[in-house]
Design goal:
Layout (H helix, E strand, L loop, with lengths): L2 H20 L2 H9 L4 H25 L5 H19 L5 H15 L5 H8 L5 H29 L2 H24 L7 H7 L5 H26 L5 H9 L4 H8 L1 H18 L8 H15 L4 H29 L5 H30 L2 H22 L2 H5 L20
C-alpha cells in the first residue's frame, strides 16, 4: 500500500473507533452505570473535547522533534491499552479517568492530517481534504452502526474493546509504514527546504488563522449541538428502539457527504470552476436543523440529508482555507490551533446540550443550532466577505467544497 492510502485507512480506523459510542453515550451510561442524567452525558462528551484540545498542541510540539509516524506507534499503543482497561472499570470515576487518558494520547492521530497535507501538492489539497472528509463521514456510518449493534447484542464492554482495537490497528499500520520504508521524513526537510517566515508575515498569517478558527468554533458549536441526544430523540419520535437502525439514521450525513463528493468530482470533470456557495450551504444547514425539530420521522430524515450536505461542504471549505493561508512548516502548529477552537466549539455544544435538554427538551437544541448557523453566516460575510475575493483557494475540493475541520472529530 502507498503512504497516502495507508494514512487514509488509518484515518478511517480512527474515526470508526471514535464513532462507536458517540451516538449512544446516554444508553451506555444507563446500561453500564445506571446514570440517566443528560448533564452527565453532556459533561462527559465535553471532557473528551477538552482532552483533545489541550493535548493536540502538545503532540504538535513533540512532532517537531520526533517523526509523526514514529510518535504514533507509541501513543496509539498507550491509547489502546487505556481503552482496553476501561472495559473493566467498575466505577464511573475509574471509567472517566481511563478513557480521558485514552483520548489524551489518542488525539495524536490527528497529526496525520497536516502530515499528509505536507506531502501533497497545493493544487491537490482540496481533493485530498474532500476525500478525508468523506472518510470521516463514512467511518461515522460504520462506527455508529457497529456500535449500535454491539451495544444491543453484546453489551457496553464489547464497544470499548472495539474502540481499543481501532487504536491497535493504527499502531500496526504505523509499524508497517516504518518497516517497509514508506515513511517520508519531514523534520530534515523543514530545515533545508523552507525559509522561515518573517515576523510580520507570520503575524498576518496567525491573524487569519485565528479569524478562521473563531468561525470554525461557532460552526462546530452549531453543527454538533444536536449530536449528543439525537439517538434518544429519534427513538422517541419514530417509536422504534432498534439501535442499529438508530445508528444508521445518525450517520445519514455520512452518506450525503459521499454523494456530495461524487457530485463535486463530476462538476470539476465537466470543467466548471468551483464557486463560493458558503451562503447557500449555511442556509441549507439551517433549514435541515429546523426540519429535524419537527415531530415527524419523515421531516427528520429530510433534515438529516440537508444538514449532511451543508456539513460536508462548509467543513471542507474551512479546511482548504486553513491550509491555503498556512505554510508547510507551520501546518501542524496551525492545524492544532484550529483544532483547539473546533474542540472548544464541540465542548461548549456538548455541555450546553446537556443543560438545554435537561431544562428545555431536546427539540430546542435544533432551533438553537439553526440560530447559530445563521450567526455563522453573518460572521462569515462580515469577516471574510471581502478577503475571499482575493484569497479564495485556487483548487477547492471538486465542485463547490466552498466554504471543513473535524474530523474530526472524530465525530
Amino acid at each position: 500500500m502507498s503512504l497516502r492510502l495507508t494514512i487514509v485507512i488509518m484515518s478511517a480506523f480512527g474515526v470508526i473507533s471514535d464513532a462507536i459510542l458517540i451516538a449512544f453515550y446516554p444508553q451506555f451510561f444507563e446500561v453500564r452505570y445506571g446514570i440517566t442524567s443528560p448533564v452527565h452525558v453532556g459533561a462527559y462528551i465535553a471532557a473528551i473535547s477538552i482532552a483533545v484540545m489541550c493535548t493536540l498542541p502538545l503532540w504538535a510540539r513533540v512532532a517537531r522533534h520526533v517523526e509523526t509516524m514514529h510518535l504514533l506507534v507509541y501513543t496509539q499503543l498507550v491509547a489502546g491499552t487505556f481503552g482496553a482497561l476501561s472495559a473493566w472499570a467498575e466505577t464511573v470515576t475509574a471509567f472517566w479517568v481511563l478513557t480521558m487518558l485514552m483520548f489524551m494520547t489518542k488525539s495524536s492521530y490527528l497529526l496525520m492530517f497536516p502530515y499528509l497535507m505536507r506531502l501533497e501538492k497545493a493544487e491537490t489539497h482540496g481533493a485530498t481534504i474532500g476525500l478525508l472528509s468523506v472518510v470521516v463521514h463514512i467511518g461515522g456510518i460504520f462506527g455508529a452502526m457497529a456500535g449500535g449493534l454491539a451495544l444491543q447484542q453484546f453489551g457496553p464492554r464489547t464497544c470499548l474493546w472495539m474502540m481499543a482495537g481501532g487504536d491497535f490497528v493504527q499502531m500496526a499500520l504505523c509499524l508497517y509504514l516504518i518497516r517497509t520504508g514508506r515513511v517520508v521524513r519531514v523534520l530534515g526537510a523543514d530545515r533545508s527546504s523552507h525559509t522561515p517566515a518573517s515576523g510580520v508575515a507570520r503575524r498576518g498569517t496567525l491573524g487569519l488563522i485565528l479569524r478562521l478558527s473563531m468561525l470554525m468554533l461557532l460552526f462546530d458549536f452549531s453543527a454538533y449541538l444536536v449530536r449528543p441526544f439525537f439517538s434518544v430523540y429519534w427513538e422517541g419520535i419514530s417509536g422504534t428502539h432498534n439501535q442499529m437502525l438508530t445508528g444508521l439514521v445518525f450517520a445519514i450525513p455520512g452518506v450525503v457527504a459521499l454523494i456530495a463528493l461524487i457530485v463535486n468530482k463530476r462538476a470539476t470533470r465537466d470543467g466548471r470552476r468551483p464557486l463560493d456557495h458558503t451562503l447557500g450551504n449555511l442556509l441549507l444547514g439551517t433549514a435541515g436543523l429546523l426540519l429535524q425539530a419537527a415531530p415527524s420521522a419523515t421531516l427528520i430524515l429530510i433534515g438529516r440529508c440537508l444538514y449532511g450536505w451543508s456539513l460536508f461542504q462548509v467543513i471542507v471549505k474551512l479546511e482548504v482555507t486553513l491550509f491555503k493561508v498556512s505554510t508547510p512548516d507551520a501546518y501542524a502548529k496551525d492545524f492544532s490551533i484550529a483544532n483547539f477552537f473546533q474542540n472548544l466549539g464541540v465542548l461548549l455544544s456538548s455541555f450546553g446540550a446537556g443543560v438545554i435538554v435537561s431544562r428545555l427538551g431536546i427539540e430546542i437544541t435544533f432551533v438553537l443550532a439553526a440560530a447559530g448557523m445563521l450567526l455563522t453566516l453573518v460572521l462569515d460575510r462580515w469577516t471574510f466577505g471581502v478577503d475571499r475575493r482575493h484569497a479564495q483557494p485556487a483548487a477547492l475540493p471538486e465542485g463547490d467544497a466552498g466554504t471543513l475541520a473535524g474530523a474530526t472529530h472524530a465525530g
